[in-house]
Fold this sequence. Notes:
Number of strands: 28
Shape: globular
Helix content: 25-40%
Distance between the termini: 35 Å
Strand content: 25-35%
Largest sheet: 7 strands, mixed
Bound molecules: glycyl-adenosine-5'-phosphate
Number of helices: 16
Strand order of the largest sheet: 3-14-15-21-18-17-16
Amino acid sequence: MAGEQDLMEKIVSLAKRRGFIYPSSEIYGGINGFWDYGPLGVELKRNIKDAWWNDFVRCPPLGPDGRPIQMVGLDCSIIMNPKVWEASGHVVNFNDPRVDCMQCKTRFRADDFWRSELVSVTEVPEVVTDEFLESVATKRGHGPVFLECAGYELQPIVRRELDSKKAKVVTRPWVIAWGVQSGGPPSPRAFVIDGNRYYFVDSDKTVARDGDKCPACGGALTEPRKFNMMFKSHAGAMEDSSSEVYLRPETAQGIFCNYKNVLDTTRIKVPFGIAQIGKAFRNEINPRNFTFRSREFEQMEIEFFCHESQADQWYKWWRDTRYAWYTGLGLKSSKLRLRDHEKEELAHYARACADVEYEFPFGVAELEGIANRTDFDLKAHQTASGRDMTYFDDETKERFLPYVIEPSGGCDRAALAFLCEAYCEDEAPDENGAMQKRTVLKFHPRLAPIKVAIFPLVKKDGMPERAMEIYSALRVNMTAVYDEKGAVGRRYRRQDEAGTPFCLTVDGQTMQDGTVTIRDRDSMKQERIPGDPAALLAYVQEHLRR
Ligand code: GAP
């Protein structure tokens, strides 16, 4: 665990040092949950968004019938009529349980605060004592320890995670869990075991214990309460309830609101999808794990409209296609998973759902959710707006409300996963041939912020001019940098840390026979190739497609 924490620290530090990600408004001490992307970060993120847009909107894949699927894009406003959020259920349901410290006023997400570290469960001894529970709780930092108690059953997801860790499931009446009730008294808000008072915090997920103290100051905590995560603002000059608006917490609702506009203004037919990339805002109680849980982030969402009878087939196709997209861009390792939700986990309107999960250094967490949302959203907007949302199929003469398959991913989480996956430490020889530690970001070439760096070996004998000529030719077609500062080995190292797949060096031989060396980031092998700019462009482009 310490090693993983260490790794995360190294990644965060590299991200800052090399200009991938900075804390927002850092000169004023930063602001929790907000991040800025620096020169390399903005290229990485743009490449992720371009790859997504290209692969799903401009050149979408072949569908289950072997023909390209129909996709179009949208770019909706961030602030929408507040009735959208009433109809979608966000005003009433977009809540997180939270507890407040009555002394220092710090606010905690209740389910984070009391979530057990499953790793601790692997160490459960034969005889579970209070001391053992305390020791695990101390390791976690705060909160009680949990598993199962009589009359309460573990949620399937927890049970599976325990199984995967070969953990023992303890059934002591006083060991409490993330449990769902089975056969006990009907839905209690709170219950008492061994003198401790426990609360159900978030319907069936979390259990909190009375008497827990604030981890920041040791003060008493409030009971868990619901907290709506939408950011509010006002549109117009008046600042009263009539002008209240929300910053969108997801991009999806803009798509649902425009679904009829798209049908009416294009020749598209069901089944088809609408894609959108854009900012979303959530007033997360406890932003954490670098950019993973932020308050401002970007989503890449698709709403795919189809007939109910085809929804299961499209759901499976999207689930597998979206998973394959991540592996195709380099998340090949065993760290990527596709996890189908158990029935008990599904939202009441969803027929199926799966998460693409990645094993970050801080734990396994969701990159994207793919859901069969039925006709829930269109029906909700039809009812609330009074507008007809049905689709008429010319061929079958059937009028129906389409079902929606929604692959919903986060661009920042994808960027973080690609960064974590790319991070690598190995060894490379320095100027004197001595092996030194090397930090390298092995990005997939499509995602690499800079594709090629061009160096003159020395700043004389016409080498800078020739290198600049090559740079000028290549930068029209790809992100390229020119660097003439410092020893060439150091310049390679700088590009390795930025994840640049290729470095071209103009040297003495270039001035004689026109060839240059090309160095591969991963193998560090150098090859001598013709240095004519057009030939170089073709060569690099060809190798970037590998
Ligand atoms: N329209 C469905 C929807 O918004 P979601 O699971 O709440 O579903 C989709 O969000 C994706 O948005 C997540 O899988 C994640 O990648 C990203 N996301 C959600 N909350 C986030 C946050 N606080 N910080 C960064 N990314 C977030």
